[in-house]
Amino acid sequence: MSEKNNTIEKLEKVLKKLLIDNPDITVAIITSIEGLPIRSILPRGANETIVSAMVATLLSLSERAVMEMNLGEFKQLFIKGNDGYLLVFEAIPAVLSVSTTEDAKLGLIFYECERTSHEISHILKN
């Protein structure tokens, strides 16, 4: 049980660092491929289970669309809303999703999220 707690602590530390280093990121969640929440930093009142399930569904549909259109392998999903962005990144064996403000510097956010997703993948594989 101690090893699992250590993994959860590492994942929480990674998410907190991502949000501290990037104030335009407002939400961060690590979800299993199956749609189960692993770790998240969500606003009060947000349902972690529902968000995780929706992210997994988006991932599944995106992977399928990329495959059907012969675009190689899925890497990330980008959705723009009126008030910001939802970004979904592979972090095999999981998924990293973040939401941002509408004024976010997306180049920096993409870079940081790619780095973070690799770190998450490394933590979960060890």
Shape: globular
Radius of gyration: 14 Å
How would you describe the oligomerization state of the chains in this entry? single chain
Poorly predicted sequence stretches spanning 5 or more consecutive residues: none
CATH superfamily: Dynein light chain 2a, cytoplasmic
CATH class: Alpha Beta
Q: What kind of sheet is the major sheet? A: 5 strands, antiparallel
Please bin the fraction of helical residues: 40-55%
- Count helical runs: 3
Structural class: alpha+beta
What name is given to the CATH topology?
Beta-Lactamase
Average pLDDT metric: 93
Strand content: 25-35%
Known CATH architecture: 2-Layer Sandwich
In spatial order, strands of the major sheet run: 2-1-5-4-3
Order of helix and strand elements from N to C terminus: HEEHEEEH
Total DSSP E strands: 5
How widely separated are the two ends? 15 Å
* Count of domain modules: 1
Overview of this structure, please?
The protein has 126 residues and is of the alpha+beta class. It has a single domain (2-125), classed as Beta-Lactamase, CATH 3.30.450. 48% of the residues lie in helices and 28% in strands. The protein has helices spanning 2-21, 48-68, 106-125; strands at 25-32, 37-41, 76-81, 84-91, 94-101. Strands 2-1-5-4-3 form a five-stranded antiparallel sheet, with helices on both faces. The longest helix is centred in the middle third of the chain and has 21 residues, at 48-68. The chain is globular. The two termini are 15 Å apart.
